[in-house]
Design goal:
Chain lengths: 433, 502
């Protein structure tokens, strides 16, 4: 955290200081202005832990946190009151797998932190490419998303994801967990782009994990240069240790049921905590995933046999997993369209998933899967990430009316809303003074 | 290479389509519709086989396998909310289908269905079938394989002589899923890697053994063109022309210069044959003509297609995103005297909506896609609404085998965005984005797109308001035949999916 000295050091030094703070401190840097107390009244509020939504409820935000939520909550003196009669309040949605802030225009590669030029880069940190001032961030917020996981997009051992709040204009203000999880891709394209074959890809991955385990047990010999050659450089091996110690999950993209089986074998052999991603054929092994309580992150719109590794894809994958008791998390896997997370949840409901559990699949469930204490639930002491919706959050005609991040209301103005404003009448009267 | 240099690990397929192939329309050969203007050669009816008559297409209208299954028995759908897409809402209402056509639509229980079936659609909503004017189903089928990567002939920037139907794989599993989303008609287009991609074709989504048998009867020919980033990226990467926007415009104009000459050559020859040598000519002159000029000009499949566009016998569907690119395209069209039917994608149409509406040029676009390339950076969710407000004809398209399954949700989102911006729109406007307007874009609005007596009986019975995210297409009819019944799924349409889908 900045000390009093920080106010007299240069801007450049401050930036460095902020970067260092990010790397060493897991806590987000609080903003000076977290907003005054806010009371949202008469709303339908979605509650955690399997409880039904509460109607005509009041939620109080202060000090960046949820202070109270319930039917008999008193509005504190001096609080700003938002009458949300007929409206709905949920925790801010969390998209568990995005490229938000690490890509501006996909086809302009210089704007994309998405090609790591190598399949084995476990030490890569997505947070180092994250731009909280990206034009995409406020656009994501207009869909009621207040936090996202920013994850590397390519590579077999792809690097480390970050967890960020969609607020602020500096990395320290927005980044909650600079290093959240190790990310791996083990689908058809990953195999093609790495070893060229599926079994070769698994060999690379297994060898890396074995080398990291060996390195951990023989660090003295490694330092004395008395060790056989390992498949990865030291920085990569080091980056894998928290995962091997069980402190970080391995977040693996795999689709074919047989590939999911290989993931489970790796989990057993290396005592890994797994989060499964993509998982088009996960429904075929739903019972096993439920027994192990492995969270599955998926897009319910991916119902096509788009590749040979997902020929059994189906639209009700989320529903079948949910019915089996698997923790289901819904994601856009996007950057520009993170704002459409509600639509993913709505389509899961369309295919049979329970409505309120679909909301949990973009709030509580991802928070639990990544051990994000205080996120994804509206209860006293929770992080003040709160959204007021005009109606059913998962319905197409519903608008987001208020977004609070850490108790502070964020603007819903975006580059797109500015374009609309400029061109609302034609011919546009351009203000170019 | 279908996979873009960058692809999200989990969304690579849809993105690959959007980024690399976002395309446009071109249409397969069909006889010119009665409403469309016919060129002089087509009208001449002389002894010579004019290439503009598109004889190949006409002959194929009667090939075995096409519409040879007889007419559907009568079906009465009653007790539903019926939305006609002409502004009428019958609640409760009915639709009577007979002989593949809509026989009657109205309020109440309806007249009965002698010899047919009655469907009690209480609590459900009936609309015209959705029409997607921009799809690559069948030419970029799933699963993604190099063997079926047939949508972009990236060997020459002008490939007007191609027809998407000759790449179409009828076993694409995406076909049945599109029907499950309430889609009954699509235009399958060549990709947008080329300035002139070739002809697309309009088709009914029915399980048939080949593209010809699926063609929408009587749909006009459509020509798919492209401007902007894609052609210059594809050919620039090969160190070939075009590598710039100015190179693209020049190559496009060059193509139409050649087409003009081709039309002139054929017109000269046809005129000669329609008017034999007159009395004023000497025998020697006539003999000279017989000897040297009787041979018709060589046919050129590409120029033949461009000539159709010049004569107004093919609808020009032009992939363009940016306002400046659309204006440049209109300039080319004006120079050569042809009309642009619609700009596809057209994410910046809202910036020049007054111009496009005045010129009578429609758009086919998404509800809220943006930013995946520079020319998509200024896309806004209010585009459809603003264009509609300005009096333009706006259609929703998918360009994606995933988006095509939820076009109804796209309409709902675009409606919500427009209303929030203060644009006065109602559910009929949203429905027309899905049905009547894409029908116009494809020149089949006299046959489908609204529920009116005499039109083809292409309709959807929705489980609830189709503008709800929770709505399913429960029943889908094409030409009065029930082709999809959500409650009674049969074996997969696609041979490919046997054994992998329950």
């Amino acid at each position: 955290m900045p000390t009093m000295d920080a106010v007299v050091i240069t801007r450049k030094a401050l930036a460095w200081f902020g970067l260092i703070a990010t790397l060493v401190a897991p806590a987000r840097l609080a903003r000076a202005d977290d907003g005054g107390p806010v009371a949202i009244t008469h709303a339908r509020v979605y509650l955690p832990n399997g409880r039904a939504p509460l109607d005509d409820a009041t939620l109080v935000l202060a000090g960046g946190k949820v202070q109270a939520v319930g039917a008999a909550v008193r509005v504190p003196a001096g609080a700003r009151v938002i009458d949300a009669r007929g409206k709905v309040v949920t925790p801010g949605f969390i998209d568990a797998d995005t490229a938000l802030g690490i890509v501006d225009v996909e086809l302009e590669l210089q704007t994309s932190e998405t090609d790591t030029r190598g399949p084995m880069v476990p030490a890569l940190r997505a947070v180092d490419g994250y731009n909280p001032r990206s034009a995409l961030v406020p656009i994501a917020r207009t869909g009621g998303v207040t936090s996202v996981v920013v994850a590397p997009r390519t590579g077999v051992l792809a690097g480390q994801s970050a967890f960020v709040d969609l607020t602020g204009d500096s990395v320290p203000q927005s980044v909650v967990r600079p290093i959240l999880a190790q990310v791996a891709h083990a689908d058809e394209p990953a195999a093609q782009e790495s070893a060229g074959t599926r079994s070769g890809m698994w060999l690379m991955l297994r060898t890396a994990l074995e080398d990291a385990r060996f390195y951990a047990a023989h660090q003295a010999q490694y330092d004395a240069n008395g060790m056989r050659t390992l498949s990865l450089p030291r920085s990569s091996l080091e980056a894998l240790l928290p995962m091997l110690r069980g402190e970080q999950p391995l977040v693996v993209t795999a689709h074919r049921a047989s590939d999911i089986a290989v993931v489970l074998k790796l989990a057993d052999d290396f005592k890994l905590r797994i989060v499964l991603v993509g998982a088009s054929e996960a429904w075929l092994v739903a019972d096993e995933l439920a027994r192990r309580q492995i969270p599955v992150v998926l897009d319910p719109l991916e119902d096509l046999p788009a590749r040979f590794d997902r020929l059994h894809a189906r639209a009700d994958n989320a529903t079948l997993l949910w019915k089996a008791g698997v923790p289901v998390i819904l994601s856009t896997f996007s950057a520009h369209q993170v704002r459409l997370l509600w639509q993913r949840a709505g389509n899961a409901v369309r295919e049979g998933m329970d409505h309120d559990d679909a909301i949990r699949a973009v709030t509580e469930t991802p928070a639990d899967a990544f051990h994000l204490t205080g996120y994804g639930r509206l209860e006293p002491g929770a992080v003040g990430n709160v959204v007021v919706w005009g109606g059913d959050p998962l319905q197409a005609g519903t608008r987001v009316e208020h977004v609070f991040v850490h108790g502070r209301e964020e603007t819903l103005e975006t580059r797109q809303s500015l374009l609309l404003k400029r061109y609302r009448t034609v011919p546009a009267r351009l203000d170019v003074r | 290479m279908r996979r873009p240099a960058f692809a999200f690990a989990h969304f690579s397929f849809a993105l690959a389509l959007a980024l690399t192939f976002a395309c446009e329309p071109a249409r397969a050969p069909g006889p010119a519709p009665a409403a469309a203007p016919s060129g002089p050669a087509a009208d001449a009816g002389g002894p010579a086989p004019s290439p503009f008559a598109d004889a190949e297409a006409r002959a194929s209208e009667t090939i075995p396998g096409a519409d040879d299954e007889g007419l559907a028995p009568a079906v009465l759908v009653q007790h539903a909310v019926v939305l006609t897409a002409t502004g009428q809402r019958f609640d409760p209402g009915y639709v009577l289908m007979e002989n593949g056509r809509i026989a009657a639509v109205g309020t109440g229980d309806g007249p009965g269905a002698p010899g047919g079936t009655v469907v009690d659609a209480h609590g459900k909503v009936v609309t015209p079938g959705i029409i997607d004017p921009h799809s690559h189903i069948g030419v970029y089928p799933v699963p993604e394989t190099s063997a079926h990567d047939d949508g972009n002939e990236l060997t020459d920037p002008v490939t007007a002589g191609l027809r998407a139907e000759h790449s179409f794989w009828p076993q694409d599993p995406a076909i049945e899923r599109a029907v499950a989303g309430g889609v009954t008609t699509i235009a399958v287009l060549p990709g947008s890697g080329n300035l002139v991609g070739g002809r697309g074709f309009t088709m009914h989504l029915m399980p048939k053994p080949g593209a010809r048998a699926m063609r929408f009867p009587g749909a006009p020919s459509i020509l798919k063109m492209a401007c902007g980033e894609n052609p210059k990226r594809v050919y620039g990467d090969m160190k070939r022309a075009p590598s710039t926007r100015m190179g693209s415009v020049r190559a496009t104009r060059d193509a139409f210069v050649r087409a003009q000459r081709y039309v002139r050559d054929w017109d000269d020859w046809s005129n000669k044959h329609a008017h034999p040598p007159g009395a004023g000519e000497t025998k020697a002159d006539a003999g000279h003509d017989d000897k040297h000029d009787d041979k018709p000009p060589d046919r050129d499949l590409g120029l033949e297609t461009l000539a159709l566009a010049l004569r107004g016998d093919a609808l020009v569907e032009w992939h363009c995103y940016q306002a400046d690119d659309m204006l440049a395209a209109l300039q080319v069209a004006r120079e050569f005297g042809f009309k642009v039917r619609a700009f596809h994608h057209a994410l910046e149409a809202y910036k020049i909506r007054d111009v496009l509406a005045r010129e009578g040029v429609g758009i086919a676009t998404w509800d809220d896609w943006w930013g995946f390339k520079m020319e998509a950076y200024d896309g806004i969710p209010e585009n459809l609404a603003l264009f509609t407000e300005a009096g333009g004809r706006a259609a929703l398209h998918s360009d994606s085998p995933i988006a095509i399954q939820i076009l109804n949700q796209a309409a709902a989102k675009a409606l919500a965005a427009g209303r929030a911006a203060g644009v006065k729109l109602d559910e009929n406007d949203a429905l027309r984005w899905l049905t009547a307007n894409p029908a116009w874009v494809l020149g089949i609005d006299d046959q489908v797109g609204t529920l009116e007596a005499g039109k083809r009986a292409d309709l959807v019975v929705w489980s609830e308001d189709p503008l709800s995210v929770y709505a399913h297409a429960d029943l889908v009819y094409i030409d009065g035949k029930l082709i999809f019944d959500r409650a009674h799924p049969g074996a997969p349409w696609s041979d490919f999916e046997l054994g992998s889908r329950p």
